[in-house]
C-alpha cells in the first residue's frame, strides 16, 4: 500500500513539472512574438515618417521654386461702378440706344468690333421707326447738297446721313443743315484700291451704331435721287432683297482679274464683278463689317489691275448670301460711251426726258414686275445743280 502511494506521488510530480515547463515555454514564445511584432511596427513607422518628411521637404522645395507673383490690382469695373454710384448715374435703355457722335475716337478695329454686335432677340422692347442710312463716299464736299436738302425736307426721323470724305478736305465749302456735322473719321481713298472697300465698311460700321437704321445705301457726291423721299423710303424699307450687282464676266476685266492665290476660299467659278454702289439690309451690313475670311484675301491679293470695289462685295455676297440678292444696283449710270468710267452729265444734257428715261425701266421688285428699277443716278457734274433744282418739282416731285 505504501509502495502504491509513492508511485502515485511520483507520477503526479512528473506531470506537474512537464505542465509547468510547457507553460514557461508558451510564455516565452508569446514574449518573442510580441517583441517581434513591436520591432516590425517600429521599423514600418520609422520608414513611413522618413517618407513623410521627404515628401514635405520636396513639396516645400517645389513651392519655393514657383515664381512669386504680385497681388492682382483691383478690377477697373469696381472703380467705374463706384464712380457711377457716387454720381448717382443710372444707365437707362434710352441712353444705351443713343448712337455715339459721328466724330468719335474709335479706330477701325474698335469700330468694326462694336458695329458687329447684334441682338439675338428679334423683337424690339421699344417703339422704333426704321430709318434709311444714306452713306456718301466723297472726295470733298457734297456739291449736290441743295438738291438733297429738298429731298429730305419734312422727313426728319426717317433717315440718317453719313459722309466719308478725304482727310485732306478742310471743310472750306459751307455745309448745308442736313450734312452739317455728319462727317465720320475718315482715311485716304484711292480709286480702284482696297482702301475704298475699307471706307465703305467704315461707313457701314458707323451707320450700324444706330439701331434704327435698317437699310443702307452707298452714294457719291455726284449722285441724285430720282424719286421723292416717300417713294424711295417705301421702296427700300419694304424690299425683301438686297441690291448688290453681281455677274460672271469671263473677259480680262472680269475673270482675268482673279488671283489663284485666293484658293481655296475663293475659286475662279465664284469670282464676280459688279457696281460698287449698293443698297442692303441690316443683316447683310452686319455680315460685311464682320467678314474676317474673304476681305483679308482682297487686301492681300487684289492689287494692280484687280479693282477691289468692283469685285469684293459681288463675290462675297454671291458666295454666302446669293438667295437674298437681286443681282442689280439701284443707281443708274450711263456706260454707253465706253471707257473705264461711266459718262458724266453736263448741264446741257439734263432734261426732263433724260430723267424720265432713268426713272422708267422693267425689272422685278419683291418678285413682281415694276417700272421703278432705279432710285438714284450718277454722275452729275456740279454745273447741273441749278437745272436739277428747277426740274426736280416737275419730275421727281420734291
TrEMBL record:
<dbReference type="InterPro" id="IPR044174">
    <property type="entry name" value="BC10-like"/>
</dbReference>
<keyword id="KW-1133">Transmembrane helix</keyword>
<dbReference type="InterPro" id="IPR003406">
    <property type="entry name" value="Glyco_trans_14"/>
</dbReference>
<keyword id="KW-0328">Glycosyltransferase</keyword>
<feature type="transmembrane region" description="Helical">
    <location>
        <begin position="25"/>
        <end position="49"/>
    </location>
</feature>
<protein>
    <recommendedName>
        <fullName>Glycosyl transferase</fullName>
    </recommendedName>
</protein>
<dbReference type="GO" id="GO:0016757">
    <property type="term" value="F:glycosyltransferase activity"/>
</dbReference>
<keyword id="KW-0808">Transferase</keyword>
<dbReference type="GO" id="GO:0016020">
    <property type="term" value="C:membrane"/>
</dbReference>
<keyword id="KW-0472">Membrane</keyword>
<keyword id="KW-0812">Transmembrane</keyword>
<dbReference type="Pfam" id="PF02485">
    <property type="entry name" value="Branch"/>
</dbReference>
<keyword id="KW-0325">Glycoprotein</keyword>
Amino acid at each position: 500500500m505504501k509502495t502504491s502511494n509513492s508511485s502515485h506521488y511520483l507520477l503526479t510530480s512528473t506531470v506537474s513539472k512537464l505542465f509547468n515547463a510547457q507553460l514557461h515555454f508558451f510564455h516565452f514564445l508569446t514574449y518573442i512574438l510580441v517583441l517581434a511584432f513591436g520591432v516590425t511596427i517600429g521599423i514600418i513607422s520609422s520608414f513611413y515618417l522618413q517618407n513623410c518628411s521627404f515628401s514635405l521637404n520636396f513639396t516645400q522645395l517645389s513651392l519655393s521654386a514657383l515664381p512669386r507673383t504680385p497681388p492682382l490690382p483691383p478690377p477697373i469695373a469696381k472703380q467705374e461702378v463706384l464712380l457711377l454710384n457716387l454720381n448717382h448715374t443710372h444707365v437707362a435703355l434710352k441712353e444705351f440706344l443713343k448712337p455715339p457722335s459721328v466724330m468719335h475716337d474709335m479706330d477701325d478695329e474698335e469700330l468694326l468690333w462694336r458695329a458687329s454686335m447684334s441682338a439675338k432677340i428679334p423683337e424690339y422692347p421699344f417703339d422704333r421707326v426704321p430709318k434709311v442710312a444714306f452713306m456718301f463716299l466723297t472726295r470733298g464736299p457734297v456739291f449736290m447738297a441743295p438738291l438733297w436738302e429738298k429731298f429730305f425736307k419734312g422727313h426728319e426721323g426717317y433717315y440718317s446721313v453719313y459722309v466719308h470724305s478725304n482727310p485732306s478736305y478742310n471743310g472750306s465749302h459751307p455745309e448745308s443743315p442736313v450734312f452739317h456735322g455728319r462727317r465720320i473719321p475718315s482715311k485716304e481713298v484711292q480709286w480702284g484700291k482696297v482702301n475704298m472697300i475699307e471706307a465703305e465698311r467704315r461707313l457701314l460700321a458707323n451707320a450700324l451704331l444706330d439701331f434704327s437704321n435698317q437699310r443702307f445705301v452707298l452714294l457719291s457726291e455726284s449722285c441724285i435721287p430720282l424719286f421723292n423721299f416717300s417713294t424711295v423710303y417705301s421702296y427700300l424699307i419694304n424690299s425683301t432683297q438686297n441690291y448688290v450687282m453681281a455677274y460672271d464676266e469671263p473677259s480680262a476685266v472680269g475673270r482675268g482679274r482673279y488671283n489663284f492665290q485666293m484658293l481655296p476660299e475663293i475659286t475662279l467659278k465664284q469670282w464676280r464683278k459688279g457696281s460698287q454702289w449698293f443698297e442692303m439690309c441690316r443683316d447683310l451690313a452686319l455680315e460685311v463689317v464682320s467678314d474676317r475670311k474673304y476681305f483679308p484675301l482682297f487686301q492681300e491679293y487684289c492689287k494692280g489691275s484687280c479693282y477691289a470695289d468692283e469685285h469684293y462685295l459681288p463675290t462675297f455676297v454671291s458666295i454666302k448670301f446669293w438667295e437674298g440678292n437681286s443681282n442689280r444696283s439701284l443707281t443708274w449710270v450711263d456706260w454707253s460711251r465706253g471707257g473705264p468710267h461711266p459718262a458724266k452729265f453736263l448741264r446741257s444734257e439734263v432734261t426732263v426726258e433724260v430723267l424720265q428715261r432713268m426713272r422708267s425701266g422693267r425689272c422685278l421688285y419683291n418678285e413682281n414686275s415694276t417700272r421703278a428699277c432705279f432710285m438714284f443716278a450718277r454722275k452729275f457734274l456740279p454745273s447741273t445743280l441749278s437745272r436739277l433744282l428747277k426740274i426736280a418739282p416737275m419730275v421727281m416731285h420734291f
